[in-house]
Design a protein that fits this description.
Layout lengths: L5 E7 L4 E7 L5 E5 L5 H11 L2 E6 L5 H4 L2 H8 L3 E3 L4 H5 L1 H8 L11 E2 L4 E5 L2 E7 L8 E7 L13 E4 L17 E5 L2 E2 L2 E2 L9 H12 L7 E4 L5 E2 H7 L5
Parallel strand pairs: 3-4, 4-5, 5-6, 11-14
Antiparallel strand pairs: 1-2, 2-3, 7-8, 7-10, 8-9, 9-11, 12-13, 14-15
Length: 244
């Protein structure tokens, strides 16, 4: 029986950011999305599944999503990836910490920038990048799906980032045994949306991002927000009061 994606969601930090650990059960390669804090809990999951981290991604650079970037990079050596439009926000992490009244976490070097239309590949999986500004200028969402395996292809030293066409997400992509899924960061929540009253936020842009890039996805697609419980595209299209 074919094994399905390892997907562990670990709420971390004082604001309970949902950190996603996404691992290939065959190659044991993984990416970690939004390691906001509590790196010891994240590394415990990595050890449990014997996963080798190929990339560390932040959907945006608010402190609760990036507080653990430097620590996880130090442990794993994996490259740190964000959208370039959020770099200035990340460079002002000290101001974010002062606003919350917490200690400023160490800054990580940003190894590369993710852009709309790129895909990050590890093992037999990929994460297709959607630029979904509004919560922050560089907010991204990720469509994670299985890729066809080439048994003769060597495993890359790091996750492979490449330009790609938008994935054709339809019923065939939503195999119940290993379906495509959406990591929405703080753009879309269950019956809510990300706040837009902080630096770089825009209510107009977040609504546009949700309507034009997320709600066009299949109803059955499961959405993993940056905080709180999972939902589906269909449920949000039907019930979310901000975008109905």
């Amino acid at each position: 029986m074919e094994q399905k994606l390892i997907h562990e969601v670990v709420p971390v930090g004082m604001l309970q950011c949902n950190c996603s650990i996404l691992g290939d059960p065959v190659t044991h390669e993984a990416v970690v999305v939004d390691p906001g804090d509590e790196i010891e809990r994240i590394t415990e999951v990595l050890r449990e599944h014997r996963l080798k981290v190929r990339a560390i991604i932040s959907t945006h650079t608010h402190i609760d999503h990036v507080g653990g970037l430097a620590g996880l990079h130090k442990i794993t050596g994996a490259p740190v990836l964000i959208h370039e439009a959020d770099l200035d926000l990340y460079r002002h992490l000290e101001l974010q910490a002062q606003w919350l009244g917490v200690r400023t976490p160490p800054l990580a070097d940003i190894d590369d920038f993710l852009q709309e239309g790129e895909s990050l590949r590890w093992g037999g999986y990929s994460a297709h990048v959607l630029h979904t500004p509004g919560h922050t200028p560089g907010s991204i969402s990720l469509i994670v799906e299985r890729q066809a395996r080439d048994p003769n292809a060597p495993s890359p030293a790091i996750a492979l980032k490449q330009e790609s066409a938008a994935p054709k997400i339809g019923p065939s992509s939503l195999n119940p045994s290993d379906p495509a899924r959406l990591l929405a960061g703080d753009t879309l929540f269950q019956n809510s949306i990300g706040r837009t009253d902080l630096w770089g936020g825009s209510h107009e842009k977040i609504i546009e991002s949700i309507r034009e890039k997320l709600l066009v996805l299949p109803d059955e697609m499961v959405v993993y927000p940056g905080h709180g419980p999972e939902t589906t595209i269909g449920a949000e299209r039907e019930n979310n009061p901000f975008v109905r």
